[in-house]
Specification:
By secondary structure, the chain is an alpha/beta fold. The protein contains six helices and 15 strands. β2, α2 and β3 form a beta-alpha-beta unit.
Length: 283
């Protein structure tokens, strides 16, 4: 079933590269075709395994890093629905699934069919001209290119103006993204099974409670401050700029992200975000 496996790894962490080499060797011994990013293949001394992953289809991708590595891998996939198995070599790694010491065991479970398949919605965003940005797994953010520079926005849902406000930025997040920047900005957590997106303002001047809207809706953000400029950031990467009167439309993408799981969302939530401190007793 998984005959062609890609590996996306952090390149700045020695431990991540060592784990990537271990996973690579394990898969090669299994007779699996392994594809590495070109930079990683050079760092590991395996240039023959290097590929532009945007140009090849894979049956499975193993990420070795944190949530940032997962977001990067998601943007690289030629086939967006390629399953991801995430090994945590980051700090918190909420989206990751297994710790480094369990990586090889997890791979064997995948090949044995002993896993859960979890699908996540992604967001499509575009200008009113029709120019489309890269799909977002986490969020679409419109913010000032300068720190502490407040902007003025109008928010529309399904062509109805909902709110006018001033803030450092505004983001539209998926349920996956609700545990990331949106959460840090005061938004609520959405379970992956909730078919909705959450709209959260970043440092608003006046009180702004996050709004949860159906995934079938279309959210529009308009920049209204005279002479202002904003940047459009998709999953932490700047994708474009917009000026006064510019609008960004956000809706559910036709593509989805697929993750290999061994535990439930609520277990990950407890273990990685809602920490139980040493010395505490549950219940």
């Amino acid at each position: 079933m998984f005959k062609k496996v890609g590996i996306v790894s952090r390149a700045d962490l020695k431990e991540a590269l060592e784990k990537t080499k271990e996973i690579c060797d394990h898969l090669l011994q299994r007779g699996v075709e392994v594809l590495l990013e070109e930079e990683i293949s050079r760092l590991l001394g395996r240039p023959q395994l290097g590929h532009n992953l945007r140009e090849v289809e894979m049956d499975l991708v193993v990420t070795v890093g944190g949530d940032g590595t997962i977001l990067r891998a998601s943007s690289l996939l030629k086939r967006p629905e390629t399953p991801l198995l995430a090994v945590n070599m980051g700090r918190r790694g909420f989206l990751t699934e297994v710790e480094p010491g369990e990586a090889l065991k997890a791979i064997e479970r995948v090949f044995a069919g002993d896993y859960l398949r979890e699908e996540y919605s992604k967001l499509s965003s575009s200008r009113t001209s029709g120019e489309r940005f890269q799909d977002a797994l986490n969020e679409v953010l419109v913010s000032s290119p300068l720190p502490s520079k407040m902007l003025r926005f109008k928010l529309y849902v399904d062509e109805t103006e909902v709110f006018q406000f001033q803030a450092d930025g505004i983001l539209v997040a998926t349920p996956v993204g609700s545990t990331a920047y949106s959460l840090s900005a005061g938004g609520s957590i959405l379970a992956p099974s909730v078919k909705a997106m959450i709209v959260t303002a970043v440092c608003p001047l006046s009180p702004f409670r996050s709004i949860v809207v159906p995934m079938e809706s279309v959210v529009e953000v308009e920049l209204t401050k005279p002479g202002a400029e904003a940047i459009v950031v998709i999953d932490g990467m700047i994708q474009g700029r917009m000026g006064e009167g510019g609008r960004i439309k956000v809706r559910e993408s036709e593509h989805r992200a697929v993750f290999i799981r061994f535990q439930s969302f609520y277990s990950r939530l407890k273990n990685r975000l809602l920490f139980t401190y040493k010395g505490e007793r549950d219940g």
